[in-house]
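Good morning C.,

I know you're traveling, so I'll keep this short. The sequence:
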Amino acid sequence: MQPPSSPPPPPGGGYEPLRPDGSQAPTPQPGYAPHQRPGFAPPPAPALPPGYGLPPGAQYAPGYAPQGAPYGAYSVPPKKRPGAVTAIQIIMYVLAAIPLVFGLILTGLGLGVFFSYDFAESMDMENDRAVMLIFGAVILAVGLFHLWLGIRAGRPGKVFMWTLVVVSCIPIPFNLILMNPAGLGASIAVIALAVSGNGRLFYEGRWAPYYQL
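The C-alpha cells, ready to paste straight into the viewer:
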C-alpha cells in the first residue's frame, strides 16, 4: 500500500500559514496583499551614493553627461566657425571699408556737381557734371559688394566658396600692374584660406555636422 500523497506546496516554494487549531489557511488569491498592522510602513530605500554604478570613489568628470541624460549647456556642442573663415571675413570688411569711404565722398561731390551749376563750375566740371556721380556710385557699389561678401562668408556654401575665389582673382592683374602688395596679398590670402584646410571643410559643409544656419 502506498502512503497517501501530501498536498502540493503553495506557490512561491514556502508553507501555508497555520490556523490556531492547527489547520492550514487557504492560499491567498493573486493580487492579494497581506494585512499590515496600523502604522506599519516598509523602511525607505537607501539613497544612492554619488557616482552610483561607478567604482568606489569615482565621480562623473566635469562637463560629462551620463548616458541617457538630457542635453544641456555642457553636452550640446557650440556653433562655431574655423579661424580661416573669420580671417576671410576680416579681410573682406577691410576691402569693403576703403571703397565705401571713397565712394561716399565721390558720390556726395557728384550729387553737388550734378544739381548745382555753380558748384560744378567751381570744380571745373560744368561740361561733365554726371561723370563724378557715376564714378562715385560705381566705387560705392564695389564697397557694398565686398561688405556683402564679408557677411555671407560666415555661412557654409560650396557655390559661394568658388564665387569668392573668382571675385578675389579679378583684382590680381590690376594689383600687379599698380604694384600694390597689400591688395595682392589680400586676394591671395582669401583664395588660399577658402580652398584649403578648415575653410574648405566649412564651406563644403564638412566642418561641423552640428553647425546650423
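Safe travels,
E.
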